[in-house]
Amino acid sequence: MESRVAVMSIIVEQADAVEAVNALLHEYAPYIIGRMGLPYREKNISIISIAMDAPQNMISALSGKIGKLSGVSVKTAYSGVITNE
User: Fold this and answer.
1) What are phi and psi of 70, to 5 degrees?
2) Angle separating helix axes 18-27 and 56-67, nearest 10 degrees
3) pLDDT of residue 63
4) In the chain, what are the helix, strand and coil shares in percent, each to the nearest 5?
5) Count of domains in the chain?
6) For position 27, what pLDDT does the model report?
7) Which residue range is the domain that position 36 belongs to?
8) Up-side HSE of residue 42: CA atoms within 13 Å toward CB?
9) Please, which residues have CB within 8 angstroms of residue 10's CB and are 6 or more apart in sequence?
10) Alpha-carbon Rg of the chain, whole angstroms?
11) Phi, psi for residue 36 in degrees, rounded to 5
12) HSE-CB for 52 with a 13 A CA cutoff
């Protein structure tokens, strides 16, 4: 199966959405290389960056599920590196 490296940027604007975002990230944990979360208290938002190495459909599925959450924005950037696993 082909695997891609991607970076996902997530902005959480509603505090009650944090639990749902964390649950989704836990579900996809085997594909997550690293995670950095920054609470921006002055603006009452959280900024989360996720590095992934996963099949394209897994990256898209996670991004889609996160994007459907109310008060959450997500953008994904893909590397050109594709490997067979």
Assistant:
1) -70, 135
2) 170
3) 98
4) 35, 50, 15
5) 1
6) 98
7) 2-84
8) 0
9) 21, 47, 48, 49, 50, 66, 72, 73, 74
10) 13
11) -135, 125
12) 28
Residue in this structure with the two tokens 């594709």, named with its chain if needed: 82
For the chain, the residue count is 85
Distance, CA of 6 to CA of 18 (rounded, Å): 21
Can you give the pLDDT at residue 82? 84
Euclidean distance between CA atoms 8 and 24, whole angstroms: 13
The domain that holds 70 is classified in CATH as: 3.30.70.1150
Q: What is the pTM of this model?
A: 0.92
User: What are 30's two structure tokens?
Assistant: 């085997």
* Residue in the structure block whose two tokens are 């099949």: 55
Task: Going from the first residue of the chain to its last (85 residues), give the mean pLDDT of each consecutive group of 10, the final group possibly shorter.
Answer: 95 95 97 97 96 96 98 96 84
Type of residue at 48: I
| Of the candidates 56, 53, 10, the residue with the CA atom closest to the CA atom of residue 34 | 53
Neighbouring C-beta atoms of residue 23, cutoff 10 Å: 10
